[in-house]
Amino acid sequence: MDQKILFSTFFIYIICYNTHLINAHPSFGYSDKPDGPLSYNFYDKSCPNVGMIVRWGVWAAFINDTRIAASLLRLHFHDCFVDGCEGSILLDDTKDFNGEKSARPNRNSARGFDVIDNIKAEVEKSCPSVVSCVDILTLAAREAVVLSGGPFWPVALGRLDGLTASEKSANEQLPSPFEPLENITAKFVAKGLDVKDVVVLSGAHTIGFAQCFTFKGRLFNFKGSGKPDPSLEPSFLSNLQSTCPNIDNSNTILAPLDFQTITKFDNIYYKNILNNTALLQSDQALIQDPKTAQMVKDYSVDPFLFAKDFAVSMVKLGRVGVITGQGGQIRKKCNVVN
Length: 338
Known about the structure:
Shape: globular
Strand content: under 5%
Domain Plant heme peroxidase family profile: 37-338
Largest sheet: 2 strands, antiparallel
Number of helices: 14
CATH architecture of the largest domain: Orthogonal Bundle
Order of helices and strands: HHHHHHHHEHHEHHHH
InterPro entries: Haem_peroxidase (IPR002016), Haem_peroxidase_sf (IPR010255), Peroxidase_pln (IPR000823), Peroxidases_AS (IPR019794), Peroxidases_heam-ligand_BS (IPR019793), Secretory_peroxidase (IPR033905)
CATH class of the largest domain: Mainly Alpha
Binding site for heme b: 205
Cofactor: Ca(2+); heme b
Helix content: 40-55%
Radius of gyration: 20 Å
Active site: 78 (proton acceptor)
Number of strands: 2
């Protein structure tokens, strides 16, 4: 894209973005007060442009690949859910540990590492050894949601990067689409979250894609029955069977998690659940449990309620297991410890 057009488009985006923030702050309870060990103005003096640098980096990636929004959001979730928000998912394997990139939930599916690395390089030019990779990832997830039409939320900063990563921890701690809702909820509770956060953060599946192997069992051999999941809407089932035929080499084919508004962050995901057109069994299960069904119905009819609650849950997620003070570092490069 021509450089002048690129900067002009970004300028227009920033104007719209700032308007979005003005409207968002009253609803989502923005405050400059400290958030525990974190602070909303942590880098105001040491790296005042970090927010703009992250915003630019995510936007530049997004205009070339709208799918990157869901990828960055997922990267943040998978980071925080494994031993806390400490940037461990960004680390390459070393002779001392097998990292999270090669864990089953991330292998050949986690993406966006290059975007974070590029943003980190730009931040280092502006303020060397000041901003952690995990703070960059946390900001990038928020920018990705806003770019997709979703809510803004304030991000408290001051996290330190962790010193190690664990493939084993990622395999054990990350929720799986093959697990029953009870198990998924237990994993959320173990992180200080609750069943409401399960329903709300599952709404991130309003954007992004899933590989066929994550739901193919529903199409052809549901729970070993030799038949499709009877809850799937017939025409939706037929379309999915065409997209993901019952052969091994279809396993990595991608299908949208929300087939109606693929790149737009909205509440259609919950309408899909009610219409029996949720892609993953773990998503469809939300309407089958009385503890979660009413929330699905509420969010399906009130997009503003979903946006508000999603912002609140993302703030909670960003606090999980953070490192401040001792025990962490500011990595110079996100894929290796210093």
